[in-house]
Design a protein that fits this description.
About 40% of the residues lie in helices and about 20% in strands. With about 290 residues, the chain is α+β, with helices and mostly antiparallel strands.
Length: about 290
């Protein structure tokens, strides 16, 4: 309980705590910071100066973006470990957002810089091949985490079967992935099929062995393809720039054909973003 001798008006408490009167009323309504006394006739709120310590905690944690419910957990913590766990959880989210902000700043800086490196395009013919595949419905905004998880799943399956890979990890993106599941600003995010794959060294025709692949993994045959290929260097958050340059190259030459765009992921799944190499492979007519 708070001593009655220490009570001050809501206005005075506002000046002492830097919390506005409107905010103090809201914190009372939600039960976060209740006045020490509320007059039964006038409904005037009075606070104890002993509550200033809690007000200071709230001010700082709200300034750091902590949700009110988590601040309540901090204030009501029965022990130091519980209190610290709530604060550490929020600090970890802040660190994640900080990393995302730094990435966004770097992306904007790169956008201000003209592409000075010449576009290098290789025309490549790929024969049909067998591959371990796993698929899901995803979108431009949600595909990254799934792809990394899928590549790990396929690596485990490859090891379990004893098959040998015949090329780098890859992924297939059909037209709907871009037209329906591209960046959505106003509408609900729509998902479309995405396939992750690892090509394996099996001869053409039906495989003789019955492999135990695990849930969701299939042994599929990828069709032959004619591709215009360029290598994107750096974070996958910048892939749209390589797509734009390669798409322009294909359009200017009127060589595009229907079919999924392939990506070949040349580095390990846990490699640092800044050093990644991703082949973007656009389906085209075969050039003689």
């Amino acid at each position: 309980m708070f001593g009655m001798a220490n009570l001050v008006t809501i206005g005075d408490f506002s000046r002492m705590s830097f919390l506005s009167v409107k905010t103090l009323r809201h914190y009372h309504d939600v039960g976060l910071l209740k006045p020490a006394d509320v007059d039964a006739y006038t409904s005037y709120r009075r606070y104890s100066t002993d509550q200033l310590a809690d007000a200071q905690v709230i001010l700082r944690l709200r300034g750091f973006g902590m949700p009110l419910e988590e601040i309540r957990q901090v204030l009501n913590a029965s022990d130091v470990e519980t209190r610290n766990a709530a604060i550490i959880s929020h600090l970890q989210r802040m660190e994640t957002r900080l990393a995302e902000t730094r990435s966004a700043v770097q992306s904007l800086r790169q956008l201000l810089q003209a592409d000075t490196e010449p576009l290098v395009v290789e025309h490549r013919h790929l024969e049909p091949c067998w591959a371990l595949t796993v698929s899901t419905n995803s979108s431009i905004q949600t595909g990254g985490p799934w792809l990394n998880s899928a590549r790990r799943t396929l690596a485990d399956a490859l090891s379990a079967t004893g098959l040998q890979r015949s090329g780098p990890d890859g992924s297939l993106y059909f037209a709907e992935f871009f037209t329906d599941s591209g960046f959505a600003d106003l509408d609900e995010v729509v998902t479309s099929k995405v396939v992750a794959f690892v090509p394996v060294g099996l001869a053409p025709g039906e495989p003789d062995d019955d492999f135990d692949l695990g849930a969701g993994i299939e042994l599929s045959q990828l069709p032959a393809a004619e591709l215009a290929v360029t290598t994107h260097h750096g974070s996958c958050t910048e892939l749209d720039r390589s797509y734009a340059r390669l798409g322009t190259y294909v359009t200017e030459r009127a060589i595009g054909v229907a079919g999924p765009i392939r990506e070949h992921h040349l580095d390990p799944v846990d490699a640092p973003d800044e050093g990644l190499r991703t082949e973007v492979c656009w389906p085209v007519f075969r050039l003689q």
